[in-house]
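Sorry, explain these tokens?

___
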Amino acid sequence: MTTVSSTSSSTAASTGSSSLIASGSGTGIDYSALIEASVQKRLSRADRIDTTITANEARIAAYEDIQSLLLAVNTSLDGLRNRSVSTGAGSNLFEERTAYLSGGGSTAAGDVLSVTAADGAETGTYSIVVEQLATRHKIGAATTASQGAALGQSGTLTLGVAGGTAVSIDVEAGDSLTDIRDAINARKSTSGVTASIVKVTDSQYQLILTANDTGKAITLDDGGSGVLTGLGLTDADGGYANELVAARNAVVTVDGVRVERSSNTIADAVDGLTFDLYAALPGQTIGVEIGTDLASIKSAITGFVDAYNAFRAFAQSHQTVGSSGTADSDATLFADSLLRQVTKTVYDALNAKVTTDDGNTLSLASLGITFASDNTLKVDETALNATLTGDIDAVRALLGLEMTSSSTDLKLLRYDRSLGRTDFTLDITVAEDGTLSGASVDGDASLFRVSGNRIIGNDGTAFAGLVLVYTGQTGSVDVGFSQGLADRLYTTLNGIAAKDSGDIARIVSQLDADNTDMTRRSDDIKTKAEDYRTRLTAYYARLEAKAEAANLLLQQLKYKESSDD
């Protein structure tokens, strides 16, 4: 800081990083005001840049809000697209199955068994009777007065379960009931047998052996040493001395067919179905209906309506006009081209219609979904329920992607983009050794490439993103695709809102880059302005010092002249 002063009165003015005081014996000029005006003139360029940066930050936040809202729409649509994971979806609700149970008389069907259906399992009905549950084999030894006292038994006993791996346990005369239990349990993962001690009374303890798995009998042998008889596990004839629970298999009848398994979980009786048995109920039939999980589909549809309405509310908030007729202060994206594009794209997609193979025309109204006066969506739940229960195939056709093929040898593996062509004839060439060698449409072999048994659509063509698997011979296959509303909207929005590659991500990335560059320019201007402040302050300080010196000299001359008189 430069200070010029004299014994006379002075004034001070702030200049940011410096201050300059003009003395009464100098010029008397307010240098601080001059300096500040000059510096602020230079800083005005930085202020304009900072205003642009702030506006960009508001736009970035708004774009990220749009992105989040559109991704929420796509999350709700994902399972409705009738695509598998390999074709670009996280789930396919039309392939998800649920089991509906009925019957059982006075016992609730769900207390007797549960049925889990794998995705894609055949729909249909079954009649189930749980005749018998599988049980774990359980045998007991003789009771003893103490679980910690030596039993006086010695020898080697071998135990296991039928069909398993037996283990040998050495028993010594000094071993107690606890010692034998611990020795058996140390090998239980191999033998399949677990030991426990039950306190029968205050003076009676009993060793219990239990098979780890149901339906498997415990096997015992002591090589004639007599240790098993001594422990009371076998009788004189070598049979079980005290069989508490016999080993039994589960027995059920499925549509009149007897099914017997060692486990109460039966996963191999009907393809795609797993039966978990909880209670035997001989003579009582449980009805099992395997159907599409309509509740999940309905939940996804109503979730989509909610997600769309949230986006619609956001879009409307950025189209608000204030009382003055200009854009509302919170309408950051007022008249924004991307917001207009997205709004129109979504609206057009939701108003699209799908024509089924039998000539029926479907739309959102077929699901009981209509537009309200403010262009939000509303759901007639009664109509939605009727459509879901009455014609789930129509719902699938309206919403999802479907492929038809004139050959069962051609399968869809992946299609992760919007459709370029919906109907075409694929001419496939297979070499004599069975190797897939080429595929073309309308004689154009540049549309596809082959890899193993895969036919892959080339980028830049109408078939980009399409991957088919073919296991047949040379020939032509007619292929048709139908892209429903949910799939069409999803793929379109994904191109706009995808986290790393969508239109919004690219715009935000560019705005971030612009802000980084403008911040650098603004900081440079501010640095140079402060340097200029410092130089200007020093310059005016020198002027003031010279003015003060001149004034002092003038005062001296006047004094001398007065003295000479």
Q: What stands out?
A: The chain has eleven helices and 29 strands. Residues 403 and 481 are 5 Å apart (CA to CA). The first strand starts at residue 10 and ends at 15.
